[in-house]
Amino acid sequence: MTTRRSLLAAPALLLAGPAAAQDRPLRIVVPFPPGGSSDILARILQPELQRVLNQVVVIDNRGGAAGNLGADNVAKSPPDGTSILLTDTGILTAGPSLFARLPYDPATDLAPITMLTFAPYIMAVHPSVPAQTGAELAALVQADPGRLNFAHSGVGALNHLTMLVVMQHWGGTVTEVFYRGGMIGIQAAVTNESQLIVNGATAVLPFVKDGRLRAIAVTGPNRLPDLPGVPTFRELGWPAWDAGIGQGTLAPTRTPDAAIQRLYNAFRQVLAEPPMVARMTSLGASIRTEGPEAFRRQLAAETDVWGAIVRARGISLD
């Protein structure tokens, strides 16, 4: 009789699990310090997600190890829909080739919820740099190797890999300077501690608009509406023209499908609202909410692409 009652009660307990989880805060882990592209997006979404989900949403910045500390924290969190990762997808697609011993497997320990946005990179320089165009910047780097400091957020980060590929195309070199976070690197370029930056439009565009940085070129298929005079990498004949910052969100593997769907629906609803569309456009980002399976396929394809680049250059962080 006890066994039969337990079996009869089991479905009710399973149904109660996700509902009970909704009574607890939703923790969005951003695996970078405050101020970068992922953090900016998370904080824009936070109040709207709270409204749509009717649930408290908190941002948990867990920077370190090129984003892997935060990703690993989510991978090892209870799979109940209360802890999710919001990240630049580059840590998931380049990481497996950069690190021989990651503490988690991006492909098996995290369940995709959805891609959120894509923002192209802006290559920008401090206004003191005597180069107004892409051709002039390439010539400067060729003529005076190492003169310019290039600020980036970590060896093997996609903005770093993008610059390596472009430098190879130019046939010159810059001095690479690592900063613990994208926004710290941008601030270094603003203060002329470093003179060159490649980073997401979401974070860089405000500094270009107010004149503290000069945009040289942008990735992506089209020029940015707010920077109509700045050419694309593709127009300049540069490689890595389709690079950029894809932001997505994932949950621990074994999170119930119902919880994944609930979160996906909430993100899709919030990002479809006209004020949010306008806000993302003003930040140079396009909205991408195709759902879990499309996001899974995209991550697999980009892992192959960036893995090949990392291996070809012999880059390793172990």
Automatic annotation (TrEMBL):
Pfam families according to UniProt: TctC
The protein's name in its UniProt record: Tripartite tricarboxylate transporter substrate binding protein
InterPro entries recorded: BUG, Bug_dom1
UniProt xrefs under PANTHER family: BLR1237 PROTEIN, TRICARBOXYLATE-BINDING PROTEIN
Span of the signal peptide: 1-21
Keyword flag Nucleotide-binding: no
Keywords linked to the UniProt accession: Signal
Keyword Methyltransferase belongs to the record: no
Family, similarity comment: Belongs to the UPF0065 (bug) family.
